[in-house]
Amino acid sequence: MKACMIAALFACSAGLAGAEEAPVTFHNDVMAVLAKGGCSSGPCHGNASGKAGFKISLRGEDADFDYNALVRDMFGRRINTAEPEQSLLLLKATATVAHEGGKRFDPDSLEYEILKKWIAAGARKDADGIPTVTAIDVTPKSQVLLEPDFSAQLAVQATYSDGSVRDISRLAIYEPANLAMKASPAGLITAENPGETTVMVRYLNQHQPVHLAFVPARPDFKWANPKAHNYVDRHIDAKLRTLRMNPSDVAGDHQFLRRAYLDLLGVLPTVDEAKSFVLSNDRKKRSKLIDQLLERSEFAEHWAIKWADLLRLEEKALDRKGVELFHRWIRESIANNKPVDQFVREIITARGSTYQNPPANFYRAARTPITRAETVAQVFLGTRLACAQCHNHPFDKWTQDDYYDWAGLFARVDYKVLENRYRDGLDKHAFEGEQVVFTALKGEVKNPRIGKDASPRFLGRVEPIDEEQDRLEELAAWLTGPDNKLFARVQANRIWYHLMGRGIVDPIDDFRATNLPSHPELLDELTPDFVSSGYDLKHLIRVIMNSRAYQTSSLPNDTNAEDTINYSHSLVRRLDAEEVLDALSQVTGAPLKFDGYPEGFRAGQIPGVHAIAMRRSKITDADKFLQVFGKPERLLATEEERSCTTNLGQALQLMTGPALAELLSNKNGRLDKLLASGKSSGEMLDDLYWTALARPPTLTETAALSRHLEQATDKRAALEDITWSIVNSKEFVMRH
Amino acid sequence: MKPPHSSACSSYHACAVSRRHALKVGGLGLLGLNFPWLLKAEEIARAAKIKPRIKSLILLFQWGGPSHIDMFDMKPDAPEEIRGPHKPIASSADGIQVSEHLPKTAKIMDKVTLIRSMHHTMNNHNSAGYYALTGSAPATDDQRLRDSIDLYPTWGSVVDKFAPNSGEMPTFISYPYVIRDGSITPGQHASFLGKQHDPLFFTQNPNDANFALPELTLPAGISYERLHARRELQKIVDAQTRLMETSAETRGFDTYYEKALAMLGSEKLRQAFDLSKEPDVMRDAYGRTTYGQSCLLARRLVEQGAKFVTVYFDDSIGGQSTEDGGWDTHGFNNTKMYPIIEKRHLPITEQTLPTLINDLDSRGMLKDTLVVWMGEFGRTPKINGNASRDHWPQCYTTLLAGAGVKKGFVYGASDREGRYPAENMVRPDDLAATLYYLFGIDPASEVHDRNNRPLPIAKGKPVTGIFA
């Protein structure tokens, strides 16, 4: 039987070559088996330090190294050409002798046969000039499978440098990202339950993703034919329909209003704002509200937080003055709707005093060429390069050379530290005082792979830069110019993410061929729309927020309850740290206290992150609250540093924590004003509910809470209890 | 879409819990299974292969770096500038000598394992401290290594992830300091494992007369009954929407409320923290110091089921005062090491360490509790110009006592002058692997950093030679 498989496998290439059977090559066959067996993976022998004394290159990136490891190391004990079956390689892989990695394949497998054949033929190095793989082609590229037919057979053809084509379906590796899906060695992907997955198909250094959707039959499914508000919905709906899902209903005014305020301003609507919106009969009131909110000062403040996280506005590196100046610059850029491409160009090319030219703080925070290179790639190109520092990127095209050549662009950024008042001279990350960022005349990055200076070039480009020009000016022009499509795509996706809760490409800073967008055509339309609007942030926000997809309810229906990636209903998430705290302050009508800022300052207005590490003084309860709720330290230029997961500490903060306790007990706040106003308990509840939840209390709530208030001897205590229970409700803490 | 995972490790990339992903149970599980749960099952299955040898661990972290040569690895035959002024004495274990300043400690040597061949190359407190507390070497020997979520989680957080407690008792508790040297020392929390695996941490001093934990103490005027009443009102509000029913994130948050409520109402927990329940004679035996009472508290917490308790000796590296500070005795500013450790560090150790071990033993707790006493490094074998010793990571001693390890045993050895391991070198990586193994956690278990790289929780190998 194994003979048949071999014969079948080699039939293609044999046919092309005109011989009965092509010889087994080290590059194209043995290396593929080592990868398919998982031998060259990171947790196994591909690990930087190998495993159990045997190291081969990570995912087979260095064939010569691997050949030597197999054939020459250990005095050649791994290979026994006289008795191939006694080769340690085969004994280990079949777990005939003890193998920590367990059995990788059976003696009657194709993998075994290939290795044995190669060994029997002398375990030779390939002849010079043997064909190398240049491309793989997987069919199908995507498929929708309807229940009960939950299996998809993938087929893979490889094209080699001599033009030959070979079916390598049995040698390719199939990796479903969704662990609920299973892949057979021969490429049959099966699912037990409905769901979507990408399957990464790999062969040697080639990879191609395939998208599979396993769709429930839902025989009585009827497309509801919901109205599209704009092109966003047409793309969303097209996919939902394929997946036999209907989108949820459009959210009610209360839900939309609260969502719009939180997403655009980071604060809650006031009672009056909420009531007048809900009561208005204007059919265009939603898009009018969006327009109004975009012009408010809180909008610039709130969206400045998103850039502040990425541009690392923290006091230890930038000092308080630097953080405040940089923050003001970002805020004003947003308020003036500075085109995003221009905003980024000003950052990339920024030099001069960090006090005189605030965007120069970007380089003040990113102090080495490596950090600058990784940060610019991740923030502006949505590309994670870090892997390529030490080895070629396992899921992307980036090589170590790409990495260091890119870093070379930033080699000459230098600093003149005019003053450093920071007392700890040993701390190389901390500064207090003015610095001047400038470009040195010389300086390169060393590429350790070749032991020489890297040759600066743009990411993904072959040609070197024009050395006559200023590197950063040239970079900024290329980055935001027409030759680089990625920039606008990444920025459009980021704006989408901040409103929709999930990137079309997700994570939003991990763009690569192997990370498929959930809605490629939608991103293909959002991006040029964004570009032709002049990189207009507000324009793109309007497009997205006016879509039905944005305005859909968070309440799922029978067809879409399990969906988390197709925008069938609005995603529920915890409010960000600043949003929760500011909302608590707003509901209680009591000001917050932050170290170094005037009373009444909102959390969403704080420019930076306190340099708490250098102080022993106690941070305020409000500062502590923000920490517990995941405000990032801003040491890493990524959205992922901001945590919006929930945990025990947060529950304790809201239940018994000092920050909320202090707000509730404030003597000049909403509670005392309500008690002094002579309002009925119903009216008091009404005020609290509209403030906190942008809705009136339900009858159940009115009954229970009024009773609590009326039966209480200590009215203030009772009102505290009620406020506590409202702000501890999920409806309050979640954005929905 | 998610990135792919390797065929060799099916968990590769599976816990790519990015900011938004974490909200959506299931990540990619469009209609069906949610794989964080699957993953957990898989991880637990993997962990279950190793039989746990300990239930709990108490880590006594000696910040600043105690001198191995002056305590547990004496070199009486070395030249004077190496052996120092202190003399060794015999102990209750054959062949083990300790400092003459530790006579009570000498009597528990028959209950401990000493690893005298600890080794690494981080010369600065923060980089060494991080390495010691996580088992992961930092990229550079940075004196002000920044505490970012790029770095490895500390041991207790890994235990909290792979072998968590159920019920109201927290898995991982640490106190009474945030250790730092100029900046906060990394390695004290869960880092990229996520804040849910951070320790229950506090800085209240267990030696204070009114020691209590604000997190477990109700605010003034809020009785437990009133908190319950509030929770009932909250449930009414929560019942008005279908958020709890339709959002796993929301339900998850509510389970934290249940847990918090259980903790706040837990007699067990309150008792554990109530040191006044201990007889005075016991409190005196541990020593009326922050460290002494912290160790007593550690025993009470473990007694109630805490799995991993870290006690930091001090928040500063110290070494220049007999009043406060850690073990960093360089002799700076005209101080001298020996008078300082004779007056502060050795007496505190002498009072507390044997008391803790004997107390655990007499309660039968040493059978399933392991005590680990260690610093971030040792001190230079050669006494410096200030009659003191500087940093020495190349060779130092770690003491282990209790469950899982041999008694009266020395593992590894330093060379004649205590400079380098002469045999059986143990790196912090190996110590981490050893402790995880003792907990029944496979040291090769994978976690994913924020770049989604699959990383083993420990990069070293368990030191099986110390296993009982």
Please tell me about this protein's structure:
The complex is a heterodimer of chains A (736) and B (468). In chain A, the strands form 6 sheets. A 4-stranded mixed sheet of chain A has the order 2-10-9-6. Chain A has a 3-stranded antiparallel sheet with strand order 1-4-5. Chain A is globular, with a radius of gyration of 30 Å. Helix content of chain A is 41%, strand content 10%. Chain A has 5 domains: 2-120, no CATH class; 133-215, Immunoglobulins (Immunoglobulin-like), CATH 2.60.40.10; 253-298 and 496-571, no CATH class; 339-479, no CATH class; 574-735, no CATH class. Chain A is α+β, with helices and mostly antiparallel strands. In chain A, helix 2 runs antiparallel to helix 5. Chain B is of the alpha/beta class and 468 residues long. Chain B contains 13 helices and 18 strands. An 8-stranded mixed sheet of chain B has the order 8-5-9-1-10-13-4-14, with helices on both faces. A two-stranded antiparallel ribbon of chain B has the order 2-3. A two-stranded antiparallel sheet of chain B has the order 6-7. Chain B has 2 domains: 1-49, no CATH class; 56-212 and 272-466, Alkaline Phosphatase, subunit A (3-Layer(aba) Sandwich), CATH 3.40.720. The termini of chain B are far apart. The relative contact order of chain B is 0.20. Chain B has helices at residues 35-47, 80-83, 103-106, 125-134, 155-162, 224-238, 243-246, 248-264, 267-273, 280-286, 290-303, 337-362, 428-438, and strands at 56-62, 88-90, 97-99, 112-118, 172-175, 180-181, 183-184, 200-201, 308-312, 369-375, 378-379, 391-392, 396-402, 409-411, 413-414, 421-423, 446-448, 454-456. The interface between A and B is large, with 115 and 95 residues.
Tally the beta strands of chain B. 18
User: Superfamily at the CATH H level of the largest domain in chain B?
Assistant: Alkaline Phosphatase, subunit A
- Proportion in β-strands of chain A: 5-15%
**Helix-and-strand structural type of chain A:** alpha+beta
The number of helical runs of chain A is 29
Shape call of chain B: globular
| Number of helical stretches of at least 4 residues of chain B | 13
**Termini distance of chain B?**
48 Å
Stated plainly, the CATH topology of the largest domain in chain B is called Alkaline Phosphatase, subunit A
Under CATH at level 1, the class of the largest domain in chain B stands as: Alpha Beta
